[in-house]
Design goal:
Elements: E1 9-11, H1 12-27, H2 29-44, H3 48-53, E2 58-60, H4 61-75, H5 80-84, E3 86-89, E4 92-95, H6 105-119, E5 128-132, H7 138-146, E6 151-156, H8 159-171, E7 176-180, E8 194-199, E9 204-205, H9 214-217, H10 222-225, E10 226-227, H11 234-246, E11 247-256, H12 262-271, E12 275-281, E13 287-293
Parallel strand pairs: 5-6, 5-8, 6-7, 8-11, 9-10
Antiparallel strand pairs: 1-2, 3-4, 11-13, 12-13
This protein binds S-adenosylmethionine.
S-adenosylmethionine (SAM) binds next to helix 7, strand 6 and helix 10.
Length: about 290
């Protein structure tokens, strides 16, 4: 029987102990356990219970190096999603990297709102949808998956993000038409009229940087996050302008928004002449989503 030399093996439990001694002060024990669970699944395709049932579980030198490499990266504040290169959104797997924002739970609420809006409506379901600032593709791909009759388009200025979004569409077995464009200076020549336009654009003001955790600030793309303090609704204004031309009459515009700018958003949408404006709170009670009709 083939067996490993002692120096080639390492007890998984020893690695877990090393994770706790290196990371608990920064992240807390529970979060470190959840990092380790994700790494167990990612590198070994096993669940924590297998380690609990077999505390002597051993791994090879190569596997040990994977875990210790991940530990080094986590020590430098890199989010676990970038360490393993994937995350889950709306129950679906998504690849992520330093060019894509890590999808947030609040954005899942926005996707739910749209799906509820479409499925509760009695009108024709083969809708034309556009997601502006798609990043990893989390919004557009979840919509395509859950609204199979819809024709989904997704736009971003970042080619690197679009590369990942395309991989995610393939990973999830959906068709999305990806568009490389700058929404602040968009190509208006296409003739498409949309039934729904959705966007989670950059909306964090520089003055809010103090509220942002260092692991976000140091690792997630600033192109996806920040706007000038003097013009925090810049993207929303540009998208309203775009929607005036490209959203069908009766079509619906959905936004994720900065929790501090709900009233400014209502004013903006009224100024653009949109109707049936509804401001919605997220699970934490913060103004986070807004919808309106053209
Ligand atoms: C807040 S992230 C949202 C990403 C993804 N939709 C999500 O919800 O996780 C904003 C996205 O807008 C994109 N973006 C930034 N400036 C843009 C521009 N001028 N035109 C189009 N997209 C832009 C960024 O590349 C980023 O992917």
């Amino acid at each position: 029987m083939w067996c490993l030399d002692d120096e080639d093996i390492m007890r998984l439990k020893t690695i877990l102990d090393r994770f706790h001694s290196s990371l608990d002060d920064d992240y807390g024990k529970d979060e470190v356990n959840s990092f380790f669970d994700l790494l167990l699944e990612h590198y070994l395709s096993i669940k924590r219970i297998q380690l609990v049932l077999n505390p002597e579980y051993v791994i090879t030198k190569e596997q040990e190096l994977l875990f210790l490499g991940a530990l080094e990266v986590l020590k430098s504040n890199t989010p676990i999603q970038y360490v393993i290169g994937e995350t889950e959104f709306y129950g679906l797997p998504f690849k992520v990297n330093e060019h894509t924002l890590i999808p947030r739970p609040e954005t899942e609420e926005l996707v739910s709102l749209i799906i509820e809006g479409v499925t509760s409506s009695t009108v024709e379901k083969s809708l034309n949808l556009l997601d502006i600032g798609t990043g990893s593709g989390c919004i557009s791909i979840s919509l395509a998956k859950n609204l199979p009759a819809a024709k989904v388009h997704a736009l971003d200025i970042s080619e690197a993000a679009l590369t990942i979004a395309k991989q995610n569409a393939e990973l999830n077995g959906v068709e999305v038409v990806f568009i490389h464009d700058d929404i602040l200076n968009p190509d208006m020549s296409t003739s498409t009229g949309y039934d729904i336009i959705v966007s989670n654009p950059p909306y964090v003001r520089n003055l809010e940087k103090a509220e942002i955790k260092p692991n976000v600030l140091d690792n997630e793309p600033h192109l996806a996050l920040f706007v000038d303090d003097e013009n925090p609704l810049q993207f929303y204004k540009a998208i309203c302008e775009f929607a005036k031309a490209k959203l069908k009459v009766g079509g619906v515009l959905y936004f994720e928004i900065n929790e501090y700018l709900g009233q400014d958003m209502i004013q903006l949408l009224e100024d653009f002449g949109f109707k049936s404006i509804v401001l919605k709170q997220d699970l934490f009670g913060k103004d986070r989503m807004i919808k309106c009709t053209k």
